[in-house]
Amino acid sequence: RPRVLSGIQPTADSFHLGNYLGAVRQWVGLQDDHDAFYFVPDLHAITVEHDPKTLAHRTRNAAAQLLALGLDPDRCTLFVQSHVPEHAQLAWVLGCLTGFGEASRMTQFKDKSAKQGSDRATVGLFTYPILQAADILLYQADRVPVGEDQRQHVELTRDLAQRFNSRFGRTFVVPEPYILTGAAKIQDLQDPSAKMSKSGSSPGGIVDLLDDPKASAKKIRSAVTDTEREVRYDPVAKPGVSNLLTIYAALTERKVSELEAEYAGRGYGDLKKDLADVVVEFTTPLAERVRLYLDDPAELDRILARGATRAREVSSATLAAVHDRIGFLPPT
Ligand code: TYM
């Protein structure tokens, strides 16, 4: 079975609709016919200033959301990145193969460091994509299911895998990005020219899965559209309406064209009202399932411990091969 790997950061109290539709929804489906590894990258979460009091809670909360959304610990390996020390160890080796200029060209680093001011951006934020490459290559993943904003990081990962393989002999699988067309980029509801994002969106622009469903419904109903009335998918001319259609189609597993036909001759109000209902139906039971997992932290920790054990079986074998290839003296 082909192997997949992906991760989602514990940097907020809730995942948002973009995280789910762009990434996690695919992860759930891929468990059926893939050897799947999913993890919570807490090492990545400390590349920006964070509060130690909330990180552990957010890490458990991220795991609880993944389980509530449909990851099954009997069919996938679910773990926390810091429980598997090989990630940081391989990142060091890959960092020694990455050009300074190459790392400087990563657009997510450029965006995030510009936002913080370059004096405050950390070296960890700069080397973030190298750690992400280590995450992927340790597990010899064939596919990496992510949203569009992660494409460049997967490209860097491929470059590093090829470079290592050609310099030291074939060691890594060269992974493919697995990015859906359509839901790979869910836009901000208030500013449909920007992606929905934990750090960038205004509260009105982002639908958090664990928000009060009434508040989420209101955000959908207040989404920015345009001055026409026609419900039509056209991301260039009508980014707001197109974004709503994308979300609607993805959540109900219907085609955008079907929805266009259904709303032909009806206004945006109907579309928004119905989508608000769809979102409420999706999020209401979800919050309840997340709470069940969070109410039993011991069981959650057991699931994560089992995941880490399985993850280490794979990652330690890869790291040992890497150390051997690059000429490290084996420990006795
Ligand atoms: P993160 O935590 O920012 O986001 C998790 C996933 O959600 C996707 N996503 C979106 N998809 C569609 N529309 C949006 N508006 C939207 N916003 C976010 C992201 O593309 C991502 O797939 N660097 C990664 C975490 C990571 C990782 C990895 C991923 C660390 N190591 C190894 C894959 C493999 C990140 O920050 O994702």
Automatic annotation (TrEMBL):
Subcellular location: Cytoplasm
Motif 'KMSKS' region boundaries: 195-199
Gene: trpS
Biological source species: Pseudonocardia humida
Quaternary organization: Homodimer.
EC number(s) recorded for this UniProt protein: 6.1.1.2
This protein's record includes keyword Transferase: no
Family annotation (PROSITE patterns): AA_TRNA_LIGASE_I
EC class of the enzyme, as a word: ligase
Family indicated by similarity: Belongs to the class-I aminoacyl-tRNA synthetase family.
Pfam family, one: tRNA-synt_1b
Gene3D superfamilies assigned: HUPs (3.40.50.620), Tyrosyl-Transfer RNA Synthetase (1.10.240.10)
Catalytic activity: tRNA(Trp) + L-tryptophan + ATP = L-tryptophyl-tRNA(Trp) + AMP + diphosphate + H(+)
Name of the molecule in the record: Tryptophan--tRNA ligase
Keywords, in A-Z order: Aminoacyl-tRNA synthetase, ATP-binding, Cytoplasm, Ligase, Nucleotide-binding, Protein biosynthesis
GO molecular function: tryptophan-tRNA ligase activity
List of residues binding ATP: Q9, P10, T11, G18, N19, G147, E148, D149, I186, K195, M196, S197, K198, S199
Function, as annotated: Catalyzes the attachment of tryptophan to tRNA(Trp).
Listed InterPro entries: aa-tRNA-synth_I_CS (IPR001412), aa-tRNA-synth_Ic (IPR002305), Rossmann-like_a/b/a_fold (IPR014729), Trp-tRNA-ligase (IPR002306), Trp-tRNA-ligase_bac-type (IPR024109), Trp-tRNA_synthetase (IPR050203)
Record's keyword annotation contains Phosphoprotein: no
Residues reported to bind L-tryptophan: D135
